[in-house]
Amino acid sequence: MAHFNAILGYSSPATAIAPTTHAREHLLHHRFCKAKPSSFKELRSSRSGVGAAAKPQVVKAVLNKDVEISDTKKVDGLRGKLDKVVLAYSGGLDTSVVVPWLRENYGCEVVCFTADLGQGASELEGLEEKAKASGASRLVVKDLKEEFIRDYLFPCLRAGAIYERKYLLGTAAARPIIAKAMVDLANEVGADAVSHGCTGKGNDQVRFELSFFALNPKLNVVAPWREWDITGREDAIEYAKKHNVPVPVTKKSIYSRDRNIWHLTHEGDYLEDPANEPKKDMYMVTADPEDAPNQPEYVEVGFELGIPVSVNGKRLSPGNLVAELNEIGGRHGIGRVDTVENRIVGLKCRGVNETPGGTILFTAARDLESLTLDRETLQLKDSLALKYAELVYAGKWFDPLRESLDAFMEKVSATTTGSVTLKLYKGNASVTGRMSPYSLYRKDIASFEDGEVYNHADAVGFIRLYGLPLRIRAMMEQGI
Q1: Domain Arginosuccinate synthase-like N-terminal: where (predicted)?
Q2: How buried is 132 (Cβ within 10 angstroms: 0-12 exposed, 13-18 middle, 19+ buried)?
């Protein structure tokens, strides 16, 4: 639960803390004179009224549950008291200003956490110094690239999970692994809360918090963008300057980007008008197809049980395999997708994704299944893939339904072993060949020549029975 309904203060269930008279007057002034009406719940009136000469009121704050606050102790933060908070930290504008805001408003120690998901060394460089300069006590960085690909993205690939026909879930699948690592760290350092810098309009707030709820419902969740008076990026920049927080953006920055080993997504400013064509200088991972090599390149991807294991005959770890295909696909302009999608909260948003390796893998995996799965199984798998993608997109990675669907996908992919060859040329990845020891395709049966298994004459009876409903309807309509 992210929104703290405290007006004067908060105490943990174990310790009751109340505001001093000075703090109460200051906060009441902030409540009625500075804060936006929508930022807080209306102050509950009492019999004597605020400021009346009566015995002190008991004010309730809500984190996980209502907690009564006594009137005898000092408030450590403007909004309440937390002991230690683990913050999802990228070093960007949003999370940089969260650090001093948490300390100021909840009087807490802030432990920053960064997941290395392959976003690049430049995004990790100097991160510890920046976090500490913002007021954090420490920064914990964990390399999760292999786990991210192996345990999160490859299951999505095996399931054929694509959200709204285009999106390969690069950001959606990253949030649960980050949330899990944050919960593990919170347990390790004894934190009583976790926090993120997601806005109230986006998907990530839902993804993070549903994962927190599933993994440790006892943790409090702080979502500053839903609580503070900062209304946009320019306000955040001013707040950062005021608190001497180093941030890497200026008011001239236009794109909001999320990058990991699977993809790079671009949103914001110029792209917010869906009629605008993306600018050529926006792309960072893939070459412009017009400038890509004039000669095609062939690549072979090997699969075992629906999971990719090799590139051009060379077995690679999940992370290295994706990195290899990113490099190959990137130079041919593979994986550029311009999409308008429906966010979890109901808004539509426009974004442009670069997913070269992922595009190659999804193209290959779907084609290999054309050999190894029968019609009924393939149709059911495709229908369930839509639900799988919706669950991942909506932040329900740890939902039992997603796990149950994954069990089905694992079982149905038991024969999806083999290799697929693709031709990469000017932004296109087209399949040129596929092989599998479990192939249901039989050349001797598929041939136009007569054989022992399939007799052309057998089709007569089949067609008459298969078309019987159509024939009866036509007879009825024509009075036959």
Answers
A1: 84-246
A2: middle
The sign of the dihedral angle between the CA atoms of 206, 210, 213, 216 is: negative
Average pLDDT of the residues in 24-50: 37
Q: Which H or E run includes 99?
A: helix 93-106
For 238, the enclosing helix (H) or strand (E) is helix 233-242
- In the chain, what are the domain boundaries? 1-81, 82-252, 257-373+415-435, 447-477
Q: Which pLDDT tens digit goes with each residue over 315-363?
A: 999 999 999 999 999 999 999 999 999 999 999 999 999 999 999 999 9
The yes-or-no verdict on residue 46 having pLDDT over 60 is: no
Helix axes 233-242, 93-106, angle to 10 degrees: 60
Cα of first residue to Cα of last residue in the chain, in angstroms, is 68
Nearest to 364 by CA among 322, 330, 405: 322
Paired tokens of 175: 């949030």
For 377, how many CA atoms within 13 A lie in the half-sphere containing its CB? 17
19-33, 196-210, 244-258, 410-424, range with greatest mean pLDDT:
410-424
Q: How far apart are CA 152 and CA 212, in angstroms?
A: 17
d(CA 269, CA 256): 8
> How is 112-172 classified by DSSP, letter by letter?
EEEEESS--HHHHTTHHHHHHHHT-SEEEEEE-HHHHIIIIIHHHHHHT--BTTTB--TTT
Q: What is the pLDDT of residue 467?
A: 95
Whose structure tokens read 């549950």? 65
Q: Which residues contact 376 (CB under 8 A, 6 or more apart)?
A: none
d(CA 52, CA 55): 9
Residues facing residue 304 across a β-bridge: 307
Question: CATH homologous superfamily for 82-252?
Answer: HUPs (3.40.50.620)
Among candidate residues 403, 421, 418, 407, the one with its CA nearest the CA of residue 373: 418
Joined together, the tokens standing for residue 92 give 């960007």
Least confident among 93-102, 303-312, 374-383:
93-102
Q: Report the catalytic residues.
A: 94, 175, 204, 256
